[in-house]
Each structure stands twice: as C-alpha cells, then as structure tokens.
C-alpha cells in the first residue's frame, strides 16, 4: 500500500491525469466561502486501467466525477486527457450516472443509437453497432422494449451500452449500481468486468461499496471525509480475467479489511459531519 | 414466443359506442326515455348523413371547426411559449404562476360581453374568447412539464455535449411532451366549450347557434345531429394532437 498521490506505477501510457485538483462549491453570497469539497487530488489513470474511487458519503466522490466529466467549472488544478485540458464535456469521455438515465420514449435499441444519431452515423451502421453492443450486454431480444418494460438492472445496462457504443477513451461511472439490489449488483459488476476486459476499456469508477471496488479495480483510491483528500491508494493484484468467485477468497477478505481500516475513521468523521449538520439545522 | 394478435383497439371502441347506441335505442323504444327529449339513434344517423351533404349545415360545421382551430392554434403556440418562459425564468414562474392558476379557476366565460364589445358579433370574438379560455391550462401544464424533466436526463445531455437546440429537441421536448399534451387536450376541451357556448349565447357562427335554434324549434333530430358533429370535431382534434405527440416523442 502506498499513501499520498495515486501515481503511475506500472508501464502503460497515462490517459487521464488529475493534478492538484481542488473544488469549492460557490457560497450563498459573493463574499461567503462555499464548502470545500475536494483538495489536492492527484490521480493518473493509465490506458486500459480500472481505477475506483471510494470514500465516505459526502466526501466529494461525485463532485470529482463531475469535474472530470467537464460538467462543473470553477475548480483549481488541472484535468487532462492525453495532455489535453478538460474544461467542458470531452467527446473521449463517457459518463454513466447512478440514477436511471434511459430515455423512456425510446426503445432499448434507439436509446443506444442516440449518441451515434447525433454524431451523424448513417442509420444502418448505427443500428448494427447498437445491436452488437446490446448483444455484448446480454440484451439480445430486448431491443424493441421500452425502459418502462425493463428491470432496473437492464435499464442500467442500456445506459452503459448507450455510453460505450460511442467508444469513449475513458468511461466515468458514478455509482452505476448504487440503486440496484445486492445480487443484481454483483452480477452486473461481473458483466462489467467481462466487457471491460473484452474492450480493454479504461474506467474511472466511483463507489461507496468496498467489495465492488476490489472486485472490479486494478487500483482503489481512498478519499478522506470532506474535504475529500487522497487518504490512501491500494493496488488490487488479482489476475485477470476475474469473476465474482473472488469474493470468497481470503485475500479478498484481507483487502476488504485493509480498505476498511483506512476508511473507518473517515466514515466516522463523515458521520459526525452529518449529525452536526442535522443538529445545526434543527437548532 | 408469439402472442396471439389482439384485435385492433378501434374495434373495441366501436363496439362500445354501438352497444351504448343500441341500449339507448331500446330505452327510448320501451319508453324509459321520452322520445320528445332524446332522438332515436336509428333516426339520428340518417339525419347526420343528410346534414353532412347539406351545404348550409356544412357551412356551420366549417365555422365551428375554423373557430376552434384558430383558438387552439393560438392557445398552443402562445401557451407553450409562455409556459416555457415561466420555466426558464424561475423568478417569472414563481411570480406569475399563482395568478394564472387563479385565472384558470375563474369563470372566464362570463367575460364574453367584453369580447363582443371589442370584436363585435363576429367569429373573431368567439376565437378570442376560446383562445383566452384555452391558453391558461396550456401555460400551467407546459411549465409543470419542463419543471418535471428528470435532472439526470439533463446531465446526460450535458455529458454528451448537446447543443442547446439538440438538448431541447431530443431531451427536453420528448421528456416534457406527455404533460404538455395533457395541457393541450385540456385546453382544447375548454376551447370547444367556450366556442360552442359563445355561439349558443350570442347566436352567431356555427353549430352552437344551430343547437340554440333547433332546441327552440323543438327539432330534436336536428339538435342531436348538431351535437353529434360537435363531438366529431372534438374527436378529430384529440386524434390530431395524439399524432403530433407521437411525432414529438420519437
């Protein structure tokens, strides 16, 4: 385990570079300082790597993802992809959100085709590519179904497929399985592993679930309670391809224990921040 | 896994209407309903068919249709526009929504003398009355519709770097459409009531006037023929809005 910045350790070109990133939410008035959400974040993500960010609730995980996705501005430090600064949503970055983000007025196939349609890909080609990726996600036969007739897990697969079909260099995922039940979560995690290995997709994955972060990642970055700073970085050395049977190994349990040891204090701190806030609100 | 094809929906609808007409026919024939007040469906249908080839009658249908269409066009364009503005500018929305809601709940139909004074006894007075009547629910529902669009969908639009135009066309509009079109259908209902009631009261224009005259003459079959065609106009407009809604939600 190394502590401090999450630096590149092995070979492989750095794809995403986050340098000395801090973010403060705007205050209620001009002369009032807002809440400091992130401070001094440094993460390098190499090509084909799967990096998870875990941290206690309210530590700024999702904010970090919004910054990298170019969805918020006004941060300090820099985010770059292949050396190119990210200041607004970048076509090489795809984002998947926690909540259901499928378009209820489009069937599964046309949901996946959406981005291709806007990029002007001809109908036949986009249909073929969408069908291909839906097959990869095990959604063959569900192409014509509308989201209203799909389960939560299936909807999330459609949303991930809709992002992946655009072949982003890096996939940002903000607790994509957070709204799902435990079993669906494990199954989808396994599916994501398989697909990530097949496409050699680079992923930056936000989660509060320790098991999930170990099962999926090459590296786990642990954030502190607010303001989010990098508390520790842990390499996950399970060989690939992996599957969910990892969960029962002793080494897995060891890793969970190690991460929890770091996270425990921070979670307690976050818990304290929360109750303080509630008390202040009640007062 | 092929399911047996269900019979088309319109057959089910037709069946219901026919059943009700037959029940009505029976009720009148056995004297449950007075023949003097309600026309026999078996006499109504030939009457409608006769009227539909009668030039004078068709002119009346045309006038009501034109007044409804004009008022509806105004209510749709202006209502959706204002509703969108009230959503875009939170301050305007918070300031004016209660006023519009209050106005919507008030009996605007009683304002008809004002429109008569401004526009005279012309179709324009009827269109104005109908449009004002119908625009209010359209505004309210449109604002509601845009306010209800899931923030996650807007985040998707942002993450895909959609232009303002594409965001509106491909995300906002289809997401808001069901509620906007509920407002439009409600607006249409109010417009039809406004138009026909005004024709009835001031005795100008189309089918409302015909209904007023024939009821005074106690000419039941003509009266019901007029009412049937008002219903037909309503059905036609509802059908057209449905088509537009489907086109928007593609």
From TrEMBL, chain A:
Record bears the keyword Kinase: no
Domain ABC transporter, first and last residues per copy: 16-250
Pfam families tied to this protein: ABC_tran
UniProt KW keywords: ATP-binding, Nucleotide-binding, Transport
A molecular function (GO) term: ATP binding
SUPFAM superfamilies: P-loop containing nucleoside triphosphate hydrolases
Name of this protein: ATP-binding cassette domain-containing protein
TrEMBL record, chain B:
Membrane topology recorded in Swiss-Prot or TrEMBL: Multi-pass membrane protein
GO cellular component: plasma membrane
Domain ABC transmembrane type-1 span(s) in chain numbering: 61-242
Swiss-Prot/TrEMBL GO biological process terms: transmembrane transport
Key words of the record: Cell membrane, Membrane, Transmembrane, Transmembrane helix, Transport
Cross-referenced PROSITE patterns: ABC_TM1
Membrane-spanning residues: 63-87, 99-120, 126-149, 170-203, 223-241
Annotated localization: Cell membrane
Record SUPFAM superfamilies: MetI-like
InterPro entries linked: MetI-like, MetI-like_sf
Pfam families named among the record's database cross-references: BPD_transp_1
PANTHER family referenced in this protein's UniProt entry, alphabetically: ABC TRANSPORTER PERMEASE PROTEIN MJ0413-RELATED (PTHR30151:SF0), ALKANE SULFONATE ABC TRANSPORTER-RELATED, MEMBRANE SUBUNIT (PTHR30151)
Family: Belongs to the binding-protein-dependent transport system permease family.
Protein's recorded name: ABC transporter permease subunit
Species of the source: Rubrobacter marinus
Phylogenetic classification of the source organism: Bacteria, Bacillati, Actinomycetota, Rubrobacteria, Rubrobacterales
């Amino acid at each position: 385990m190394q502590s401090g910045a999450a630096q590149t350790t092995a070979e492989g070109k750095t794809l995403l570079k986050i340098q000395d990133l801090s973010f403060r939410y705007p205050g209620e008035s001009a002369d009032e300082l807002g809440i400091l959400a992130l401070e001094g974040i440094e993460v390098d993500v190499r090509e084909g790597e799967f990096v998870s960010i875990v941290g206690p609730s309210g530590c700024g995980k999702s904010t970090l993802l919004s910054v990298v996705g170019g969805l918020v501005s006004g941060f300090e430090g820099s985010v770059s992809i292949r050396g190119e600064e990210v200041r607004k949503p970048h076509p090489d970055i795809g984002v998947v959100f926690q909540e259901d983000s499928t378009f209820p007025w489009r069937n599964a196939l046309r949901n996946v085709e959406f981005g291709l349609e806007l990029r002007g890909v001809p109908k036949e080609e986009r249909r073929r590519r969408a069908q291909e990726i839906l097959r990869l996600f095990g959604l063959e036969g569900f192409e014509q179904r509308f989201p209203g007739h799909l389960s939560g897990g299936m909807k999330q697969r459609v949303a991930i497929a809709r992002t992946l079909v655009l072949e982003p260099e890096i996939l940002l995922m903000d607790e994509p399985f957070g709204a799902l039940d435990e079993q669906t979560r494990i199954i989808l995690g396994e599916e994501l592993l398989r697909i990530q290995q097949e496409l050699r997709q680079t992923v930056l994955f936000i989660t509060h679930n320790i098991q999930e972060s170990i099962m999926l990642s090459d590296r786990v970055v642990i954030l502190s309670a607010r303001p989010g700073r990098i508390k520790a970085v842990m390499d996950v050395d399970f060989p690939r391809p992996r599957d969910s049977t990892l969960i029962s190994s002793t080494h897995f349990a060891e890793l969970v224990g190690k991460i929890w040891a770091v996270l425990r204090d921070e979670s307690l701190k976050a818990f304290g921040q929360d109750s303080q806030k509630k008390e202040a609100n009640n007062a | 896994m092929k399911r047996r094809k269900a019979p088309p929906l319109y057959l089910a609808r037709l069946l219901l209407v026919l059943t009700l007409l037959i029940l009505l026919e029976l009720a009148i024939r056995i004297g449950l309903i007075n023949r003097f007040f309600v026309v026999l469906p078996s006499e109504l249908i030939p009457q409608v068919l006769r009227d539909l080839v009668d030039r004078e009658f068709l002119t009346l249908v045309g006038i009501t249709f034109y007044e409804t269409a004009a008022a509806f066009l105004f209510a749709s364009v202006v209502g959706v526009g204002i509703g969108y503005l009230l959503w875009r500018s939170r301050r305007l929305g918070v300031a004016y929504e209660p006023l519009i809601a209050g106005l919507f709940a008030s009996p605007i139909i009683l304002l008809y003398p004002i429109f008569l004074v401004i526009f005279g006894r012309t179709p324009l007075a009827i269109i104005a009355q109908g449009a004002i009547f119908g625009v209010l629910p359209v505004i309210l529902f449109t604002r509601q519709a845009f306010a209800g669009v899931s923030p996650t969908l807007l985040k998707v639009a942002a993450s895909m770097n959609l232009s303002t135009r594409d965001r509106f066309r491909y995300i906002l509009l289809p997401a808001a459409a069901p509620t906007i079109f509920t407002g439009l259908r409600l607006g249409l209902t109010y417009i039809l009531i406004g138009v026909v009631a005004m024709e009835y009261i001031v005795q100008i224009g189309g089918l409302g006037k015909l209904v007023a005259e024939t009821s005074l003459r106690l000419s039941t079959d003509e009266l019901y023929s007029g009412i049937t065609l008002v219903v037909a106009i309503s059905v036609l407009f509802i059908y057209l809005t449905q088509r537009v809604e489907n086109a928007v939600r593609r």
